[in-house]
């Protein structure tokens, strides 16, 4: 099963989704990412954070949704712009869901505040991907209506803040 993480620039959130998903996914599931207007480069803050988390970004690059090496079965948009754009016809009957995440690439403030924005985006994406992978995927592959409902539910879920003890 192929999952596409889609965003406008394909440099930050969609890259993070692709990398986290591939790091956690079971055999037979694979993520790719793309953008409608790719920047052509990966965001250094996203790359640094993923590498800090032990997730390699060596094989990843910013690409257009017109240059995908395969046709996705599931498309997850992670930014508001991608959610409002018309997907190309070649995506056919791909199941679509929107998992909006604020773009840490636009964060302003101190170095610590900017890093916190990247950490927040990472935590949200990881939480949602973990919830997705915890679903009975073999069962849901044959029930697209239920899978879509579960994915949409996950798309609004947020990680619980860590309690300080």
TrEMBL record:
Residues 1-135 form the Phosphotyrosine protein phosphatase I domain. SMART domains: LMWPc. InterPro entries: Ptyr_pPase (IPR023485), Ptyr_pPase_sf (IPR036196). It comes from the Bacteria. Keywords: Arsenical resistance. One of its GO terms (biological process) is response to arsenic-containing substance. This is ArsC family transcriptional regulator. It comes from Methylomonas koyamae.
């Amino acid at each position: 099963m192929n999952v596409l993480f889609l965003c406008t620039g394909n440099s930050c959130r969609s890259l993070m989704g692709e990398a986290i998903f591939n790091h956690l996914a079971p055999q037979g599931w694979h993520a790719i990412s793309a953008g409608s207007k790719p920047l052509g480069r990966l965001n250094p803050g996203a790359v640094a954070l993923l590498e800090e988390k032990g997730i390699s970004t060596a094989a990843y690059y910013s690409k257009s949704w017109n240059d995908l090496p395969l046709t996705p079965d599931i498309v997850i948009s992670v930014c508001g712009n991608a959610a409002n754009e018309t997907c190309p016809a070649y995506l056919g009957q791909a199941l679509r869901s929107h998992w909006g995440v604020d773009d840490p690439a636009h964060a302003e403030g101190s170095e610590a505040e900017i890093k916190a924005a990247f950490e927040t985006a990472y935590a949200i994406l990881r939480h949602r991907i973990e919830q997705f992978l915890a679903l009975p995927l073999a069962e849901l592959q044959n029930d697209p209506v239920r899978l879509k409902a579960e994915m949409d539910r996950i798309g609004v879920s947020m990680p619980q803040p860590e309690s300080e003890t």
